[in-house]
Write a structure and sequence with these properties.
about 300 residues; Jelly Rolls; 2 helices; binds manganese (II) ion
């Protein structure tokens, strides 16, 4: 909006289209709003999926996601409310609770379970799938649990409160950095009337998901539970988000890989032959557990 006091972004992106998401069942029958579906994988490269789950009916989530494999990409789980326990085949386990994040690099293959550790009350969160460059698809699996209080955050002079999960915002480096895809993953809380600016390279694909209230991007309203795909005009330098009411929004952006995407369920590779190999390796029990903590597979860039 033109009344903004700061001027970080001079050539802002606008909204290309609004997406409703699809109600799907996954895991052992968990009800999910699949916001980023397979048909958007090319447009939103390097992102493969965004699921939003939010329910106060235990029947919608209690069955969880029993043991299942992944290969070739990263999963980022962000719990807004509730508790989810994950275990992998090597015996590592952890608990993601209110406001916490688990960043997992499946790499050459993991088998894990993600199960709610509550049988009542509200469970709300997101799972984002971020692709790996072809050269990194078979790296050693890795994960990190990041508690809410460990997440870097920044409060802007305009009143935005931002959790910086990945990338950086207003000079604050997020919890995770990735060289290949350069993801930005922000959870932005805005009081009514406040605005927020984020610089983004014009070639990076970007989208918003509003999960409280409503925001306006260059005159276009984005209501709650809607995703807005942002345009990539040449020469643009970021996005400006204005809250028309108290709002909370995920802003997600990354550098497209421009590589072929071949997906078979929880395996995302570059070719059908690699998918075939993934299925064979999984059936042969060649997937391993995940080593918790330690060094990330890619050195963080501040
Ligand atoms: Mn999983």
């Amino acid at each position: 909006m033109s009344t903004m006091s700061s001027n970080l972004v001079k050539a802002p992106r606008s909204v290309e289209r609004l997406i409703n998401g699809q109600m799907v069942m996954d895991g052992a029958g968990v009800k999910i709003n699949r916001v980023l579906t397979q048909t958007l994988q090319r447009r939103l490269d390097p992102f493969l999926m965004l699921d939003a789950f939010g329910s106060d009916k235990p029947g919608d989530y209690i069955a969880g996601f029993p043991e299942h494999p992944h290969r070739g990409f990263e999963t980022v789980s962000y719990m807004i409310n509730g508790r989810m326990r994950h275990k992998d085949s090597a015996g590592h386990e952890g608990l993601i609770t209110n406001g916490g994040v688990q960043w997992m690099t499946a790499g050459r293959g993991v088998v894990h379970s993600e199960m709610p550790e509550q049988n009542e009350g509200l469970m709300e969160g997101f799972q984002l799938w971020l692709n790996l460059p072809a050269r990194d698809k078979m790296i050693k699996p890795w994960y990190r649990d990041i508690a809410a209080e460990e997440l870097p955050r920044v409060t802007t002079p305009e009143g935005a409160n931002v959790q910086v999960i990945a990338g950086s915002s207003h000079g604050v480096a997020g919890a995770v950095q990735r060289e290949g895809t350069e993801p930005v993953y922000l959870d932005i809380s805005l009081p009514a009337g406040a605005a927020f600016e984020q610089q983004l390279p014009s070639g990076h694909n970007a989208f918003l998901y509003v999960f409280r209230g409503e925001v306006v991007v260059e005159g276009k309203a984005v209501p709650t539970t809607r995703m807005a795909i942002l345009t990539n005009p040449p020469g643009s330098d970021g996005v400006r988000i204005h809250a028309s009411q108290d709002a909370r929004v995920l802003l997600i952006a990354g550098r497209p890989l421009g590589e072929p995407i071949a997906q078979y369920g929880p395996f995302v590779m570059n070719t059908q032959a690699e998918l075939q190999q993934a299925v064979e390796d999984f059936r042969a029990g060649k997937f391993e557990g995940i080593e918790a903590g330690g060094l990330a597979p890619q050195v963080p860039v501040p």
